[in-house]
Specification:
Elements: E1 7-14, E2 23-30, E3 35-39, H1 46-53, E4 61-66, E5 69-70, H2 76-81, E6 83-86, E7 95-96, H3 97-102, H4 110-119, H5 123-128, E8 136-137, H6 146-160, E9 164-168, H7 176-190, E10 194-198, H8 202-207, E11 210-215, E12 218-223, H9 225-231, H10 234-240
Parallel strand pairs: 3-10, 3-11, 6-9, 9-10
Antiparallel strand pairs: 1-2, 1-4, 4-5, 7-8, 11-12
Helix pairs in contact: 4-6, 6-7, 9-10
Bound molecules: deoxyuridine-5'-triphosphate (DUT) and magnesium ion.
Length: 241
């Protein structure tokens, strides 16, 4: 059955090594279509949360549900099919730009590829490359800036059209113009799908429906930008220092 994209963590505890808890009894529910920003200092547990959701690891305690179903009862293949996961270092492989965009949907037509690229602001720079969509790129993504790699990953994700979108936002600085393109693209990508973004950009954080502040493996604050500022707590200290 088509999934709605509700995500629930129920008393989830996890450690990579014994005696060193990384997530401690984490409970939250994300409504279908909601966009959540995860923020918190380095080592807080943000990437670990999305790693558990993608089942790169399983929690030692608690459970994770999508639309009420424990994800341990779903095959990895169908689980990952529901998710578009974009990690910090964008995955580019040897092939053409079009191949890279088509990755998750190999039978996509050129029209679909171009439409996806246009939606996420990637079309313009692609057309400036020597062979446009047929330009060969490689694993190291030479010829592509960090921002451009990210936009290609966005086009790929959009084309795959997952119900759940997971984005570990790149921390690398991009120029102001690319920043705007990326921001617009994120807004389009998250529309109509449940999204969890490990957010480093204030613009992303402000646009989120809710922000979870992670500290020491727990959600210590939750709310939108304004609400959290008013609390004068962790979030306030993160964003006013
Ligand atoms: N950790 C490990 N092994 C791993 C990954 C992480 O021991 O393979 C530890 C490091 C840290 C904690 O787990 O103490 C949480 O790491 P995570 O990567 O989840 O932190 P983050 O919030 O994503 O930090 P950053 O903002 O630096 O990405
Ligand atoms: Mg991380």
């Amino acid at each position: 059955p088509p999934i709605k994209g509700e995500i629930r963590f129920e008393n989830v505890s996890f450690s990579y090594e014994e005696e060193k808890p990384v997530l401690k009894d984490v409970t939250f529910t994300i409504k279908p279509g909601e966009t959540i920003a995860l923020v918190g200092e380095t080592g807080a547990g943000k990437t670990t949360i999305i790693s558990l959701l993608a089942r790169f690891y399983d929690p030692q305690r608690g459970r994770i549900l999508i639309d009420g179903h424990d994800i341990r009862n779903v095959t990895l293949k169908s689980l990952r099919k529901q998710m578009g996961i974009m990690l910090q270092d964008t995955f580019i492989f040897s092939g053409t730009v079009a191949d890279n965009i088509r990755y998750a949907k190999p039978d996509a037509t050129m029209d679909e590829v171009i439409k996806a690229a246009k939606t996420v602001n990637a079309h313009e720079f692609i057309m400036k490359m020597e062979n446009g969509y047929d330009t060969e790129v490689n694993e190291r993504g030479s010829r592509l800036s960090i921002g451009q790699r990210q936009l290609i990953a966005f086009a790929r994700a959009l084309l795959a059209d997952p119900k759940i979108l997971i984005l570990d936002e790149a921390t690398s600085a991009v120029d102001t113009q690319t920043e705007v393109l990326i921001q617009e693209a994120i807004e389009k990508l998250t529309k109509g799908r449940t999204s969890i973004i490990i957010a480093h950009r204030l613009s992303t954080i402000r646009n989120a429906d809710r922000i979870f502040v992670i500290h020491n493996g727990q959600i210590v604050e939750e709310g939108n930008h304004q609400q959290l500022l008013e609390k004068r707590g962790f979030y306030y200290n993160l964003y006013t220092s």
